[in-house]
Amino acid sequence: MPAYQLNRALVLQAPNVHCGGGFALLKELSITRNVSFKWAQLDERTKGVIELPLSVTQIHVKPSILARLLSEFRLWRNVTIDDVVLCFHGLPPLLPLSGRAVVFIQNRILVEKVSLADYPLRTRLRLWVERFWLRFLQRHAARYIVQTPSMAESLRALLGDGVEICVLPFASLNAYLPIKNALKALPKFDFIYVATGEAHKNHVTLLKAWRLLSQADLRPSLALTVDPLRYPSIQAEILKAAKCHSLNIVNLGQLSGNDISNLYKSSSALIYPSKAESLGLPLLEAANYRLPILAPELDYVRDVVAPVETFDPNSPVSIARAVRRFLGNSEPTVDIHSAEEFLAVVLS
User: Fold this and answer.
1) What is the pTM of this model?
2) 178-326 CATH choice from 1.10.357.10, 3.90.1150.10, 3.40.50.2000, 3.90.600.10
């Protein structure tokens, strides 16, 4: 691991980091006391939540195109040759800097060809621009840091072999220590899915899988954690599925850290159908609570945990079958008939 260059000042560039796994990691970064930031640009929506030391000059960036462009200009104008800039929002600087830029990428959607079809138009446009930005301004950064080997391979395939890529996952170390003498509550939910409501989190396919289970007269309980105000369309899908198909599903909304901890303790398993993750913090959290994990057979999953069941995240049938296997209620395979039997049906 590289040693700190104590003669260089550290600048934090994190506009648009305000939710999800990136926000959780930013909070962990903000309480680090061994290394101090010279100044920082943060998303306006983190004001009062991300608290850097008073000695750090903080500039809060509004969630608009103009404000983000101004933050890039401010970075270019104020960074000196002795500064190291940590681009925590996953993009290299828009303008070449006098100092050294290090980009931390935790959004797999920027790196891999994940379909954007299910995203709102505004989000699709932003992601298209950011993919272009990352690909064609890559030389504005000296180093890229990712969290898993598979993410490193994907980034290398995108940017080429000449780019320095470091695999260095980080999280709250205390959050993943083995639990000692922890009393696990009786299961309240058969399955939980701790995730926000972005399209790649794949809630719609998960709901379809639960509908298939109900058709086989299986109704396992499922708890979701989608903020209904930020993701009203997903909330509507959840309520519709629960009402129209009598599914045993509840959306608990966005939860605090303590509430999520209690949720893990009162659940039997984590199901995690997300199509793309850079790390997947809930996978680590569930493993810490010794919960069985059902997850896609994708690289990001195997990077960090060993699931008890896997499935194709694009297939409701595959997800439903994985749940059935876990519940000890496997779906029977089809019977293969003879050609004579086939023709008998044709002629009947």
Assistant:
1) 0.80
2) 3.40.50.2000
